[in-house]
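Chain A, query sequence.
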Amino acid sequence: MNDETPLSDPSLEGVEMESPMEAAPADERDAEILVLKEETAALKDRLLRMAAEMENLRKRTEREKAEATLYAASNFARDLLSVADNLSRALQALPSDERDSAGEIEKNLIAGVEVTERELLNVFQRHGIRRIEAVGAKFDPNFHQAMFEVPTNEKPPGTVMQELQPGYAVGERCLRPSLVGVAKAEG
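Chain A, predicted structure.
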């Protein structure tokens, strides 16, 4: 066996070899290069559009997830608002001068109701449920329900003068509007 391998075939000596690209005329090569560049540009554009679409989808999904988390318990929270109202009414039913003269059992009962009300309000706060501040605010039909008008010149017309029942909101959504009395010009 010969250790030397020929670098070229001796029968092809003197014959020039052309590469496949050289075999095609220059115009065809230019046309093929142009087509390949156009295909590359189209694929790059498609890739960039798909990447942007995926990023938009990711952001929209995150936003929808955050909204779903925030508003998921709205119906349950709305049902608990009557519990908060009843706890508040229970505490308001006993005048402060009678609280001072109440016995030990009554004081413990009052303290228990106060703690329960505070804890319920803390739970609301942890879940983004807030009380709507109504008195002194401009009447907003999205968050207030007018029950009556108060003729006065003390405040501008449309100002909430009195709150009959507190309203609550979660995020920017109203769970329950505040029931209010609204100022109107005295005349």
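Helices lie at 20-23, 26-71, 74-93, 96-100, 104-126. The radius of gyration is 39 Å.
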